[in-house]
Structures are given as C-alpha cells and as structure tokens.
Write a structure and sequence with these properties.
By secondary structure, the chain is α+β, with helices and mostly antiparallel strands. The chain has 18 helices and 25 strands. Strands 18, 19, 20, 21, 22 and 23 form a six-stranded mixed sheet that branches. A hairpin with a 4-residue loop joins strand 1 (45-47) and strand 2 (52-56). It is globular and about 60 Å long.
Length: 560
C-alpha cells in the first residue's frame, strides 16, 4: 500500500496544526461559525444531531494492521469505543469532542492517515472493488489507478470548491462491486482489440433526491490520458455546474439537463484544447511507480488436493461450512481465499449492533488476525463489511474460530440481513426517520439462517432520508424513511441493482408504519417463494424474479 513520503507527512502534519489553531480560535469566539464551517468540512468534521462526527479517510478501502490498531486506540480514547464503516469504505466517529478533534487528526497523521476531503464540495475518497488484485476475472488491478487519482485530487486547488461533492469509483473486472454507475464518475478498466489498457468513462450517476444512472461518454480512453480527461470533466463541471441551488448542483443534473451528447462535446473540446498530451499525460514510469505500492505477496505453494481433503473434514461442522459458503470467495492464487468479515452481527446478547459498527476490541483483534493470516492488511467494502483478501485455505478454520469469538463470523454475506443501513435519525441531523429500530425489527423477524439461504442473494438497503446514503434506490429491496407529521413511515421499493446491470428500483406503493415494515417484507418474500421458477436445485434469483413478473404481484399481496 502507499506509504507517505517526507513531503506527504509534512503536508498532513501542517494541516493538523492549521486546524488546531482554527479550532482554538473558533472555540474562543475569535472565528465566526460561517468562516469555521468550510474549514471543518475540509477536515472531515460534521455537526450531527447530538455531537460532532469525524469521517476518517480510508483510500480505496485499504488499511494496514498498524492503522487499524490506531483506529482502535482513537475510538477508546476519544469516542465511545466503536467506529462505523460507510459505503465509501471510510470510518466515522460519531461522538468525538470538538476540542479534541485536532488531537485525533494528529494521532491519525502518526500512522499516515487523515480526514482531508472526506466532506465538503471536493473530490472525495476514490473507491474500488474490495477484491482488487486477487480477483482472477479482472483486466488489471484498479488500485494503482485509484492511487494516481488520489494523488492528483488531494489538495487540488481548482477542485477544492466544486458546485457539490464529487465521487469517483474504479473497477477492473466485469463484476461491479463498487456501484460505479451511480457515481459522479465511474471508470471501468478494459482492453481494446489491440490489447491496450484503457477505461470506459461513465459520468453523471448519483442517487439522492434525483436518482440517475451514469452515461458512458467515452467507450475507450487510453490509460495515459486518465488524469487529463478527468481534469477536463471537472473543468466543464466547475464552469457549468449550478451553484444557486445545492439540490441541482451535482454533475448528474448538468449531464441530464444538457444531454450526454452535448456534455461529451464540451468535455472533448476542453480536453483537446487544454489538457490532452500536456503535463497530466501519464507515462510508463508513472504506472510502474503506482503499481510498486501494491506488490504481489509471497504466496505459498499450496496443494489443492490436500486443501480439499482438510476442508472436507472441516465441513462436517455445519457452522463452518455455512461460513465458508457465504463469507469466502475464490482467489486468483490456488490454495487461497478472500474472507468477508461480516459487520452485520445483528443481535448480540439480544442487543442490535448497527450495520458497519465495530468496537475497539474487535479492531485490535482484527489487526492481530490480519498480521497472522492476511499479510497485515484489511479492506473495507461498499456493503459496510471488511475483507481479509489473502487467506490460505489451510488457515480458514482457525480464522473462522477467531472471528466467531468476537462476533464477526456471522455467515450472512449476500443475504437479506447483510443490510446496508445509514445511521438515520438516531445520529444524523439530516435524517427524517430512524433506521436502527427497523433493522432490528427485520433481524428479529428473519432470524432463520436456513430460510435466508433459501431466499438466496438479496441486497436490502435502508436510508433514513432522501439523501440516500445507504443507496436504497439500487437495492433489490430498498427502504426509505419518511416523516409524516412527526411520525416515521417507510417507503419500500423493489428491483434495484448497483451491479453491472445497474437499475433503479420501483416504489411498491404507499409507505407503511414502523411496526409494519418486517411484515410487509414477509408478504413480498412470500410472493417470491410461492411463484419463483425452480430448475433442479436452483431457484430463480430474487432479482431475476422481480424483473420477470414486475411490481404488480407484490402490490396485490401488500395492499390487496
């Protein structure tokens, strides 16, 4: 992974001291709120419903074990002993004290971390596939390109005050695990007929009040032009994006109102005139340097036959067999698997654990396990889980036992209870409705793992407001919290997807009251289980079923 240079460290340390002085002056009444606001946002600091919230950057979701230990220490020392992983793979602290935030930033800087550009109208954390570099299907590892984008976009003076926040995601395989088509820019690595590496460039995706799927504006961009073309897109957006209305300021509104063809013309003209073949053109040395931050690990030669024999015996333990089936995925190197650590523990000692939450004790233990089993690295995912990307199959049983001991081995990845859930009204000042209580209701109603396995893969996303931080528009099942005269109600949608076949879900009908959410989901799932096609032992997937039958059968079942 990327390690700070002396210049990087000096820059981040200087930013910490600048913000320390700015915070001191604000608390002393010497700096007005309207002047402090953009300064704190540039350092990842929000003011939530009950306390400040600090969002810590985790570039492309990659953490070293020593950084995870520091996060554990920070949550113990400055927060309430836990952190919250988001869909952008960042970590949020929900209870820091304002006067201690500069100290937190100094602690982060000591392990080459920061909170810069995790908020504000700038280019945010670039995300990617959590299996990048270990997925046999990928054209090329996308992480070096994420790092190139990170270095270009951090502290970029022209793009520090864009019309609105700006998000980029990069993938290197046909499978989309980063929701690229609902990003401001989505980049798909591919090869052309000549074998050259480049990108499909998708622009103008986004959710929130106006959900829109991005448009392809270039089917193949040679990789040496990556930064110059991104620069052209951002320049067009900066020039033409609306600044009079924040709800219409995202690039998706600009592309939609202007039309993808006209927007593409402006970008191509800007590129040809100002940036193409200039100083932003990348060289082979640039690519080699970026790739050097992600070297191949020293994988052992593991004999598949011996692994299969060992696993066959271990599969007699059904709990392990279920975990292996749901929480591990193939690796490009024989004898290894990637392991998904479920941060969807559900009910622990009859108390609901919010999706994405992890305690300081768990963080410390995860750091130890990463050192022991996965080359000292941990990755975050868009689904608010974590990944050990490089685990020997012969170590899987021991790792499972260790994760089980800290309530992080729930075998529910891809099931209904592997929910993406925003903090909602409990913490967020923007939310209209609570989410944690609804997630707990769903957990208690759907508590049979065998039933969940029978349902198959279902992505449930739940947001507490129209800002759609949990991407409810693109869930197989989406839940949106709404406020009706001070009461919390919930609108349900079906048929969305954030995968390669990205689509927006269709609203089922009128919203339902708090106590009816899980029973309504049961009616929806009953329609599926009663009417799905089954070929041999393979039931029709829920997503395919919804596309085949449409919304009407579900409406009839729910509303009569």
């Amino acid at each position: 992974m990327y390690k700070y240079t002396h210049a990087d460290q000096a820059m981040v340390d200087e930013r910490v001291e600048q913000f320390r002085d700015q915070t001191r002056r604000f608390l002393a009444g010497e700096l007005p709120e309207e002047q402090y606001l953009p300064l704190r946002l540039q350092n990842g600091l929000y003011i939530q419903r009950h306390a400040p919230m600090l969002r810590i950057a985790v570039p492309y979701g990659l953490l070293a074990s020593y950084q995870v230990r520091k996060l554990a220490e920070i949550t113990r020392k400055y927060d309430r002993g836990f952190g919250h992983f988001t869909t952008r793979t960042n970590l949020q602290l929900n209870w820091p004290k304002l006067e201690e935030v500069p100290d937190i930033l100094a602690e982060l800087a000591s392990v080459q971390m920061h909170a810069i550009q995790t908020s504000g109208n700038c280019i945010r954390n670039t995300t990617t596939d959590p299996y990048a570099g270990v997925n046999a299907n990928e054209v090329e590892d996308p992480r070096p390109y994420c790092e190139i984008i990170r270095q270009w976009s951090t502290f970029h003076p022209e793009f520090a005050f864009l019309p609105r926040k700006f998000k980029i995601a990069v993938i290197g395989s046909p499978e989309d695990r980063a929701a690229t088509q609902v990003h401001d820019i989505g980049l798909h690595l591919l090869k052309n007929d000549e074998g050259e590496i480049g990108f499909e460039v998708i622009v103008g995706g986004g959710l929130g009040r106006t959900p829109i799927i991005g448009k392809t504006i270039r089917e193949f961009l040679p990789r040496q032009h990556l930064l110059s073309y991104l620069d052209a897109i951002l320049r067009v957006y900066n020039l033409h994006g609306r600044r009079d209305n924040k709800y219409k300021a995202r690039i998706k509104i600009l592309v939609e109102s202007m039309g993808a063809r006209e927007f593409t013309k402006l970008v191509e003209k800007e590129w040809e005139t100002f940036t193409k073949d200039g100083e932003l053109t990348l060289t082979e040395d640039n690519f080699d340097t970026a790739k050097s931050y992600f070297p191949e690990f020293d994988y052992e030669v593991i004999y598949e036959l011996a692994c299969k024999s060992q696993l066959s015996n271990q599969f007699e333990n059904k709990a392990f067999a279920d975990w292996y089936a749901r929480n591990t995925v193939p690796h490009k190197v024989a004898g290894y698997r990637a392991v998904v650590v479920s941060l969807k523990a559900g009910l622990v000692d009859d108390k609901y654990v919010p999706a994405g939450d992890v305690t300081h004790e768990q963080l410390d233990r995860l750091a130890d396990l990463a050192d022991q089993y996965s080359f000292g690295e941990i990755r975050g995912t868009h689904q608010q889980n974590l990944v050990f990307a490089d685990v020997k199959q012969t170590d899987l049983y021991a790792l499972w036992e260790a994760l089980t001991a800290i309530d992080l081995a729930r075998p529910n990845i891809g099931t209904l209870t592997d929910m993406i859930v925003c903090p909602g009204f409990d913490l967020c000042a923007l939310a209209n409705a609570t989410t944690f209580n609804i997630a707990e209701q769903i957990e208690k109603h759907f508590d049979d793992l065998d039933y969940l396995y029978d349902l198959g893969d279902i992505q449930l996303n739940m947001s507490g407001c129209m800002n759609a931080c949990a991407h409810h528009h693109v869930g197989d099942i989406g839940i949106l919290g709404v406020d009706k005269k001070g009461e919390h109600w919930y609108q349900i949608s079906l048929g969305g997807s954030s995968k390669s076949d990205t689509r927006l879900g269709n609203i089922l009908g009128r919203s339902v009251p708090t106590e009816e959410v899980a029973p309504t989901l049961q009616k929806v799932l009953d329609v599926y289980t009663q009417q799905r096609h089954i070929e041999g032992d393979n039931p029709e997937p829920f997503a395919d079923f919804v596309q085949r039958v449409g919304i009407t059968p579900f409406k009839e079942a729910v509303y009569g």
